[in-house]
Amino acid sequence: QVQVVESGGGLVQAGGSLRLSCAASGRTFSLYAMGWFRQSPGKEREFVGCIDRSGGSTDYADSVKGRFTISRDNAKNTVYLQMTNLKPEDTAVYYCAANGYSRQWRAYDYWGQGTQVTVSS
Fold this sequence. Notes:
Blueprint: E1 4-7, E2 10-13, E3 18-24, E4 34-39, E5 46-51, E6 58-60, E7 68-73, E8 78-83, E9 92-98, E10 110-111, E11 115-120
Parallel strand pairs: 2-11
Antiparallel strand pairs: 1-3, 3-8, 4-5, 4-9, 5-6, 7-8, 9-10, 9-11
């Protein structure tokens, strides 16, 4: 069983930056690939990016490629989502998910409660 908790969301102006953190419980964190998804009202959950167990491989949605970066620190049981050049369309609740390396949200076993990111124009 893995518990994940996101933090770092907030309100930022367009063009600004924000870093989200996802802390996971358990001594087996390094065994889990991790993903980030987002969801805005009335829309389906959307893939943002994912990172493999070692941090050596990442995948990003086209909409965030070049602006967002995922990294992880296995010693701290934490994965990060660095977001730069934020746009109003990035506004959503951002979710961290564990035990999957996929663009499909159903591939993941464990989810956090989400953190709100709001980008003002």
